[in-house]
Amino acid sequence: MSDEEQPAKKSKMTTKSSAIAPQQEEATASPAIKTCAHFVKRKKRFCKMSVAKGKEYCGEHEPAVTADANEESAVFSDRIPCPLDGKHTIYKKNLRKHLKICNARHTNDQPQYIQKNINAGSDNEERIQEDLKNIKLNELEDEEFFGVIDKVKKLYQKYVENKIAKLECHHKCMDEELAKEEYGKESLKHLVQAAALLGILEKEQKIENSTSFVEYGAGKGQLAFYLAKLLESKQNSQVVLVDRMSLRHKKDNKIEDRSLVQRIRADIADFCIDKLNTLKNYQHCVAVSKHLCGGATDLTLRCITQAKEKFTDFIMIALCCHHRCDWRSFVGKEFFKEHQISQREFVIITKMVSWAICGTGMSRERRKALENQELTPQEIAEINANQRVSLAERETIGFMCKRLLDYARLGYLRQHDYEADLHYYVTREVTLENVVLLARRKVKS
Q: What is the pTM of this model?
């Protein structure tokens, strides 16, 4: 081959390769993933689940079969609630197969730390009146309505008023995260709370070697993530995350050192902490939770106190959602019975607690308009006219009810050899659910 032929051949090859390149790039580009066309009103966005080829909706939001559909399409398209867990639906044609693999199915190979309803509370104390759940505050007679309010006020003034101290704790490990500009108001709110809770653990000198932290109701594991980062410098310490749900986008999955975290899928009602063998490898055990909803707090406290091996040294629970408390699981029943508060009055109190966060009974948009003084005096007067107590008083009573439920829990912990108190751990501007329960196990001499 001559020198004159070589450049020509090279040029020809270059042209050919450049023609192929766009085709290769087009072939390797991944197609856009089509998502569900169902609009989720509560979240004000479309469903993010992917859909099958040729479909507009994911399986969960597939529209029901119309009346004019033929019988065959109805059988193969209609979705029904799962008999084991009505929170999700399945295709009727797949029912038999689904029952064999559903996560809610009963299995005989449960780990030893799972025992059904071990922490759920006893029904033997008295009959649980299920019909009380249907009580409506606006249907109560004035005598009963104001009678419960009067009891709440008297007990609050005697046991709670001016007895909740403020904590000003903040862990510096969160400073860099809080300084990021991409976070919105909602994300920052949760980060500020996490920083305060970590600050409490640091102040109490609980972030130390040979410590196992058990986070109850861990959710996506944000608190556990930052706590595990702090444990990287400690020896033989870990975070155990307990949650009954299998969630996507879990924060703890980003922890590279997997020895620092252990996730357990279990309902707290069924969790036996003293039968989790891995905890026996640590000198200390600390129970933590960030916003443990309603009755889940009572399940957690019973889980800790019922354990045969008393190795939970410290408890830190940021409290919330008291309207989800129920008489069966509530650990503070003795305090209420001692002060002649019946099961019925307890249910009324758990309904009044919602006044603390949304005392107007209005939609979120209208409440915001009220807070921003966008409603006219006449509109505000109409709202007040429809209530037996003013909006401001409803909010105050709601917070009294919350703290009374929490104080009853303190009594339960004190009966089980814990020194327990309530504290404001962040300001109301961060969150209205700004109270944390702290308890230390008494050291027997």
A: 0.76
